[in-house]
Amino acid sequence: MKIYVIKKQELIEPFQKLSKDLKIGNRKLNEIQNDNFLKLNLNPVIVDNLSEIRDEEEHLVINDNIYFEYELLKEFIQNSKKIKSNTVCSMKKGIFTERTFINLQNVENKKDYFNYNLFYFPPKELRGETKKIIFDLNQKFEYLPLPKHLSKSGKYFIPLTTKSIIQIDHWSNLWAANLAFVITIIEQANKTNKILLLLLAIKNFSFNRWKIAGSLNKIGKKCDIHPTAIVECSVIGDNVTIGAGTIIRESVIGNDSFIGNGITIEYSVIGNNCTIVDGHILYSTIYSNAQIANQMISASIIGKDVFIGAGVILTDLRLDNKNVLTKKDNHLIDTGNIFLGSCLGNGVYLGSGCIVAPGRSIPNGLHIYPKKDKSISKIENNTIEGFEII
Q1: Neighbours of 107 (CB within 10 A)
Q2: Coiled-coil annotation: which residues (predicted)?
Q3: Which domain holds residue 307?
Q4: Which of 140, 149, 297, 380 would you label with 39, given CA atoms 20 to 30 Å apart?
Q5: What global pTM score does this model have?
Q6: Helices 70-83 and 29-39: angle between axes, nearest 10 degrees
Q7: What domain count does the chain have?
Q8: What mean pLDDT is predicted for residues 97-111?
Q9: Which domain CATH number covers 28?
């Protein structure tokens, strides 16, 4: 069966790239799409717009800026064939649509659901009114515990699914897609065959789930992992160095990266040839050739060839308890979420002392440092501008 892939020409800020060329889980979106098409025996045909499609046979139509999981597309096709009518992929409103920043996606907003740009068409004689294939991905989730002055429920919910679909119309959607990629790895590990889990428990002399999680890693070639490091349910590339006391949980580490001592990386994607020498990286994506030396990166996406100095702060929460706002097409938009960090474009350098507000993006190539009166750069006659000497 053919699947017509509609080219989208909008560039994603601040990277100035098409969605299809941006990476999710260290692979370009169009590569992920093509792999899933191949698994389902679909023949992709690239078109500029819908008007080019005059196919009277059974086929699918999708935008090239949509990230989707294999299981979602498989189920969508199966259910559509049963209905024997043209269909659209829809998602019930809830935690999943909130956490994937649906307000920043150009999808059709209905009362209780959203329609994504993924369609099925049966043979011409069966076509009629478009019917909805509605997915409800709000059934399973984990949560980050929060004090109730930050969240009334005391919990910040994160959906757990292997059926994600996210249209990449904004950098926040790209961040969400990377997190969805990591969550899929976790959920696939959780579905590991019970017999294999039993064998792993015997191998580890323990039924402790954390000890078993350490056996669910995929480790590349020529890695140097210190014996005191803890790696759980993660994918580690080739030639990776991981230092003493470092914890890597449910994350993806690219080839040739160096992770120093005493660092924590959780639910994150680290690109190729990155150097991480300090801190805690949580729910974040860092692209290739980055040098990271600050204490904390949370809910953020960091471009390639970036330098983040010690003392840089990337904030991810407003202090007025309101949702984070972010810019799209020069308009401020409510993300619908109280947590969202920042997005640094490719080649950005942040010097020590820089503070970035939540939801902000920094354009490619900017090198930023605080004003001179915020750092000691010059001493004349025993005086330093902006400082007192005691």
Answers
A1: 22
A2: none
A3: 205-373
A4: 140
A5: 0.92
A6: 50
A7: 2
A8: 97
A9: 3.90.550.10
